[in-house]
Structures are given as C-alpha cells and as structure tokens.
Amino acid sequence: MQLQPENYPIDQVLPKIEAHLKNHSCLLLKAETGAGKTTRLPPYLCHKLGKRVLVLEPRRLAAILSAKRCAETLECSLGDKVGHHIRFDKRKSEKTDLLFITEGLFLHYLREDPQLSNFDIIVLDEFHERSIHTDLAMALIRRVQKQRDDLKLIIMSATLDTGHLESYLQDTAVMNIKGRTYPLHIEYKEDLSQRDAIFEMVNRKDCPHNILVFLPGVAAIKSLENLLMNRDLNGKKVHSLYSSLSKEDQEKIFQTDHPKIVLATNIAETSLTIPQVTGVIDIGLEKRASFASWSGMPLLLLEKISKASAIQRAGRAGRVQEGIVYRLYSEIDYTQRMTFTPPEIKRVDLSAYLLQLLSLSIPLESIEWFESPDEKNLLRSLDLLRILGATETNSEHELSEKLTAKGHFMANSPLHPRLSAMLWQQNLSEFPDLLVATSILSEGGIFNKASSFHEDDFETCDLTIQCNLLKSYYLKDKNLCDYSYNYLDKKKASRVKDLYFSLCRSSKLPAKWSSHKVDSSRLTSALLQGYPDRVAVNRKNSKPNSKRSRSPQRLLYNFCLGRGGQISPSSLLSHAAGKNIPELIIVLEALENPKANAAKGTMIHMASSLSLDQLFKSKNHGNTLFSFQNESLFDEKKRKLIIEERTYYGNLVLKKEATEHESPKGLVLKEIIQNNWPWPFTDTLELDLYHRKVELISKYIGNHPFCYFRNEFFELFIDSIIDEETDYRSLQERGLRQLIYDQLAPQDLYLLESLTPDKIKLNRKEFEIHYGDGDQVKPFIKAHFQDLYGINEHPRILTQLEESLPLQLCLLSPAARVAQIVSDLPNFWAGSWTEVSKELKSRYPKHYWPEDPANAKPIRLKKNI
User: Fold this and answer.
1) Average pLDDT in the 809-836 region?
2) Phi-psi region of 121 (alpha: psi -120 to 50; beta: other; left: phi over 0)
3) 611-638 pLDDT tens trace
4) Dist CA 168 CA 125 (whole Å)
5) Is there a contact between 701 and 748 (Cβ–Cβ < 8 Å)?
6) Domain range spanning residue 285?
7) Cα–Cα distance measured from residue 332 to residue 336, given in angstroms and rounded to the nearest whole number
8) Residue 107 sits in a domain of what CATH number?
9) pLDDT tens digits for 585-599?
10) Rounded distance between C-alpha atoms, residue 600 and residue 539, angstroms
11) Which of 535, 621, 655, 541 is nearest to 584 (CA)?
12) Domain shared by 218 and 103, yes or no
C-alpha cells in the first residue's frame, strides 16, 4: 500500500496520530468533512502499524462502503485483510485485521470475547450522532481498558464536544484536522417550498452536479418524489436514499453515470459520501425515535435538527467545487437551535441493552456512563424485563437485577426482549410459524403503508394475516391468504424472509415455509408472553365505524397499565362492528403522540384480539400482572355482608364475583368498617367535633396527651370498639360520641366536658356552642338580641383556666338572620347598640328594642334558633 501524503488532509498528520496512540489510551479526532478520517486512518493503523482494528459505524451502508474503499486502498479483496459484518451479511475471515461493523453488533463481539483480545484499536466513527450503541460501547471499552492498558480507543467525528469527552476519558489526546472542502455559500430561504427550491437549484450554473435534499422521513421522500414526477429537472434523475432501502438500490446512488437529485433522510448526513454533490437543500427537520417512560410506548417525533447536524449536511456540498446550500428556515431559527442532538440514551427503550449488560455479568450500578440514561426510562425498561420474566430483584437496590433462566435464553437471541420472550420453551419444530411472526414483528409489519383496506376487510389478528400473506407470496399459494399481494411491502418482505431463514438456521430447523395457515390461538398465547403489558380493553362508549358517517369514530381501548389508544385504519381490526368488536386485544405495533389526549393518544397499527380465557391461561406461564382484591360492602336492607372478589389485570378489572354473608362480627366487621367508614354511623360529625375540642384545649393548656383518632390511631380506635361478639347494631345503639368517650381517661373526659361544653346557659336558656375549624373560626353561639337583654358580662368558655376564651356572638334579627357579630357584649350595649337598634326598629317595629338593653328583661321569641 502506498499512502500519498498530499491526497487527504489527514495523511499529513498520520505519524502524529501514531505518536499520540503510543502515549495515550484514547484519541479524540475532530476531522472536518473531506479530511479522509474514515477511509485513510484505519488502513494506516492496520497496514503501517500492524494493528488489528475494529471500526464501529452507525449505518450498514457506511460499514459496507468504508470496508470496500479500504480494501481497494490495501489492494485486497473484501473479506480478506479488510472485512465487514452487518446483519445478514458477514464478509470476514481469519486473515481480517481491519473490520467494519454496525454499532449494534458490538455487544455480540464483547460477549464472545470479553477482553476484546482480537483487537488492538477500536474506532467509534461519527460519534456526534450519539446513538445508544456508541455510548454503551464507549462505556464498556473504558471498562475493558482498565484490564488491558494496550487497548486503544479512537473517537472520530466532524463535530465533537472535546472538552466534555476529555474529562470523561481522562488519558486522552485531542487532534483537530481541517477538511478538504471548498467554500460553501449558505442561503436561508424560509419562504421557499421544497419543490421550488429544487427547481431553482437545478437551473443554477454554479450547481452543475448532484443535488442532495435532506427530508425527515420516507413519507416526505415519497411525497416529494410524486411532486417531481415528469417535471423538467435539467437532465437530473430523482433517487431516494433511506435506511430500509434495499442494498442494491442504495448502491445505485454512488454510481456516476448521470447527474442526480437524491432525496435522503439523515442517513446521508455522515459516513456516506455521495459523489459529485454541489448542492444541498436542507429543510431542517428529522424524525427522532423516542420512548414514553409514562406508558412504555414508542414515540416518533418530528423535531428540528441541531446545529451540528446542519453543519454536517451543509458539508456534503463542498467536496468537488464551491457548494451551494439552501436552508429552508431562517438564520434566526438556526442560531436558536441546540448545538448537538440529544443522545439516544436519554430517550429510547433500554430493555434490550440492559438485558445484554446483565448477560455479561456487569452490574448496572457499576457502569460509568458518559451521560447517564434518563432515570424514568431506565426504571421503565427494568420493569419490562421483570414483567417478561427475564430478571428478578437481587437486593433492595432498584438496579440490582439478576437474570433468570428465561433471561439468559432471551439474552442469547438476536431479537428484542419482547420477541425472544415469545420463543421461550416453545416447540419450534411443531410451530415454525412463530419464527415467521417474530420476524414480521421485528420489521414492524409487512403491509404496504400506501395501500388502503376495503371497508369490509376485517380480521381478528393483523399478525396472522401478515404471516399467511407472506407465506402465500413466497409459496405462490393463494389458498393461504385471500388478500392481494399489492398489500405487501416487497422490500420489507425480503428482509423478513432473511431474518426468518436466519432464525431457522440458529434454531436448527430447515429454512423453509410451512404450507398451512397459522394457528391463531397458539400464536395469541405466544404473543401474551412477549406483550403482557400491552393488553387493552374496549372502551364501552367507543363507537364502531359507520359506513354512513363522514367522520367515523375509531375504536378506543384502555391499556392495562394506564392511558388509552385508538385503532388505526392501517389495522384490519379497525373495520370491526357490532358483535365483532374485540373486547380485549394485544397491542403489537403502536406509536404514541405525547401532545394528544392521554385517553386516545396512542395510534394502534397492529393488534390481535384476545379472549378472556386465553388471558387467564397465561397465569400458568408466569404472567405477573394478575392481582386479586376483596371489596367488602354491607347491604343494610338485607342486613348482609357483600364480599366482592375482584380479579385485576394491571389496572383492568377482569372479573367480579359477589357473595353474601350474614350479619358480620369481630374481624370481618372491623374490615368492613375500615373499608366503608363512616358506616355503620351516618357521618363523622362527632369525631370531627371531638378533634376540634381537644385541639382548642391543647392550644391553651400546652401539650396535654389527648388521644387523636387519626391514621394508625384510628385503626386502634376501631380495634378497641370491636370484639368477637360486637355487631354493627350494638355500635349504632352506643353511638359514635359515646364510643369515643369510652376510650378517654377520666381526667381527659373531665377536661373535655368542663372546658369545652356542648352548650352554655344564658338567661335560663341553653345555646349550642359551635366549635369551628382552625384558628380563623373561634367558638361561637347564635342568639336573638332579645335573648341576651339584661346580660352585662360577655359569655366565655375555658373559665377554669387563668385565660378564658370569649365566645363570638352571632346576634340574630327576628327573621333569624345574622345582624351583628359581637366579641364584647358590654361595650356593644354601651356603644353601637343605639345605631343598630334604630335600624332594627325601623325594619321590625313590632319588636321590643330598649334604650338600655344591659338592664332590660329578656324576651322569649316564639321561634327557636
């Protein structure tokens, strides 16, 4: 191999990189677009230094193309000295010293070789994308480096937060390398549509070659493709580029036979260098996968890209000449964007990664993360592993989990934990269709999203139909499925076939399709093993689709662990009506909208109906979401105890069974009272009054140890009033007040009755004392003015104490309405009475309003207060 020192900017500093690696365990390489970091540095490390190098790439196509380019540089065939390993495609041998892999395979290599002894240097490419695989790999490589001081780590990207990484990695060298790029002319065109931006750019003389258009997803690409169809694009042909595109179609993008307009997702943002790009159109958005910790449902959010992503996108245009960049948003918008994209580890489902860590015997609490996972996501993911039966708690520490036998089985599977849980203890030789089902679920279904079902198309299980349609397609047997092959997404079907055959081989089964229809009942039982927390019940007020309605309502379901969702038109269950509406379903594929109503914010795209009997049978397979609770009620008319036994599945009530018992006594009566308080009494007024009185007394005589019948002391109170022979009638006869007083010591009872009496006698008439709540409401009585004529001293309570408490007097008019509130009666008689009495006399002239009420005789009115 001959490395031409002037070919790429990085070539000039390769010896310096070599020196850094001799003196440091880590190297941070911030290399601008076009520097040659991915295709020049790894071959140098491998060939010149004789090192075995493992390169982790974020995307499959990047791994393939980078390996191919490096093999050309080293003048060897792919799979010899240079190789790659992606899902379903392994090109390597014992001679391979430079290996490119997708990040998701790193844990597989670590499990096979915990010391990574087959490699001297590990390279994390395009680190700025911050996938969870990258963060996890970096944390685990650091862990291995503590045992292997000869293992080197290189982190590369065009945009790096080197300061933060230096602090985390510690023994680190940092290098900044300029790229081999031409000047970029960035224009902000927020008022220009995507289509018009393309029309304008294809006619610019300074943009003669390929144009790269960044869009947020496949749907946006398809939509723009349709708009550009049959339009004059100045000789340029339209191509698409996204991750689920077939390898053959992706490779067409890199051919130089004609100028192109490439409509791409952020797959083209880094790693992949599309040749001859002189123009970039960036709409500034991306679809970002996330995870709702509150429900466990996946999210796919349309978000603004970060500044780092915008810089990466723009850099694609300046490789061959001065580049033109259209940003279809304002410059102010750009300046206000976040610097880097939030790392995946903060926002995605962690269950698969936690399972792998536990299988490596790595305690979760011991991992030194670059940025820690979101705590809610972490705990939710651990909950899922427990629900699936993969783990059990090892100690009181919430992160101290250990794998069960089922968990070890699941960790050895290449599938998501939900799917591997479905395969546990299954006889796959008898039921190979289960591997078909898990393969389809792994791809998110095989239906063509562009197709729409007929309104009469109804099935009880989306997955069963997809399995039968897939087998019908490959076996050319229409008897397996009545649905047209037009419903099938052929590219997805191809990927599902590859995964299915791979699973067959790993399960030591023949890689072939079964020739009979899927056993729906058996499939449903297996689905419950993988989706026990996705059971949902039909909402009773949910209306089925109506053929006459212009806007038919969708079927609504409540999930067993909270929140709700609606059946999407993309599901064959959406056309259910009347008796066909499933009461219970298992939700297999769904997306949640965090901005929508929690009751129907999840759109259910794939589901299977479920019978109550099937759900109850899942208890035999370790389903932990079942719980049982007894509700006790007393029917006073029948004078019988009603015990209702409820069976719960998560938050859903599956079953209620009521049984009658005779008049309860003892412990049974105690449980009923605790569950139905204040029964057998009408209300809690006497208990509330008691507490207000003792709080008032305590305020004036200090911390006297009165009994407070609250919280645990209320339970003691109930214990004390019930023995084995006590029934509810005897409690009612005794009364709540007397039962309270029965618990008091004689001294406490004396203080209560003497200091806070129920009534006070004034002018030989008794008035009820009202004890209000809190400090703001003082004890008071209600009395007519005429009742208090002749009284010269203000009424008080707590008279045995040094500081007695004056009662508030609510003085009533003859109509029994409060006319005056008085706190000092003698002063009132001597002062404002004159004006008050004039007003009263004018309104009630037939009543007696003396000039000197302090010395007048009281008058008894006919009305009682």
Assistant:
1) 92
2) beta
3) 999 999 998 888 899 998 877 676 666 6
4) 18
5) no
6) 184-345
7) 6
8) 3.40.50.300
9) 999 998 887 777 777
10) 10
11) 535
12) no
Q: E strands of 686-822, at which residues?
A: 759-762, 765-768, 780-784, 796-797, 805-806, 808-812, 818-822
Indicate if 542 and 599 belong to the same structural domain. yes
More confident of the two residues 162 and 133: 133
| DSSP-derived secondary structure letter, 853 | G
Amino acid making up residue 619: K
680: preceding bond cis by omega (within 30 degrees):
yes
| C-alpha–C-alpha distance, residues 549 and 577, integer Å | 13
399 burial type by CB count under 10 A (0-12 exposed, 13-18 middle, 19+ buried): middle
| Bridge partners of residue 535, in order along the sequence | 586
Residue 269 to residue 284: CA distance in whole angstroms:
12
Contact criterion met (CB below 8 Å) for 80 and 490: no
Closest Cα partner for 383 from 371, 369, 401, 366?
Answer: 401
Tens digits of residue pLDDT in 668-699:
788 778 877 888 888 889 999 999 998 888 88
- The per-residue pLDDT for range 241-289, each reduced to its tens digit, is 887 777 777 777 877 778 999 999 988 776 667 888 999 999 999 988 8
pLDDT at position 377 is: 87
> What end-to-end distance do the CA atoms of the chain give, in Å?
110
**Is the per-residue pLDDT at 3 higher than 60?**
no
Q: How many CB atoms lie within 10 A of CB 256?
A: 10
| DSSP per-residue codes, 823-850 | S-HHHHHHTTHHHHHHHHHHH-TTS---
Q: Do 435 and 492 lie in a common domain?
A: yes
Q: Which amino acid, one-letter code, is at 688? A: D
Q: Does 689 lie in the same domain as 638?
A: no
> Tell me: the pLDDT tens digits for 781-800?
999 999 999 999 999 999 88
Mean per-residue pLDDT of the chain: 88
What pLDDT digit, counting tens, does each position of 420-475 carry? 999 999 999 999 999 999 999 998 899 987 777 777 788 899 999 999 999 999 99
- Could you tell me what percent of the chain has a pLDDT over 90? 55
**Is the peptide bond prior to 114 cis by the omega test (within 30 degrees of 0)?**
no
Q: Could you write out the DSSP letters of every residue in 317-372?
A: T-SSS-EEEEESS-HHHHHTS-SSPPPGGGTS--HHHHHHHHHTT--GGG---SSP
Residues 261 and 135 grouped into a single domain: no
Query: Tokens 């299988």 correspond to what residue?
Result: 359
pLDDT value, residue 621: 83
Structure tokens belonging to residue 403: 């794998």
Residue type at 202 in one-letter notation: V
- Beta carbons of 180 and 35 less than 8 angstroms apart: yes
- Rg over alpha carbons for the chain, rounded to the nearest Å, is 39
CATH code assigned at 376: 1.10.10
Q: Which two tokens stand for residue 848?
A: 């007696």
Measured distance CA(181)–CA(64) in Å, rounded: 24
CA distance 401 to 392: 6
pLDDT digit string, tens, across residues 141-179: 999 999 999 999 999 988 888 888 999 998 999 999 987
**Amino acid residing at 475:** L
- Please state, in angstroms and rounded to a whole number, the distance separating the CA atoms of residues 684 and 857: 40
Tokens of 284: 């500034």
Same domain, 383 and 431: no
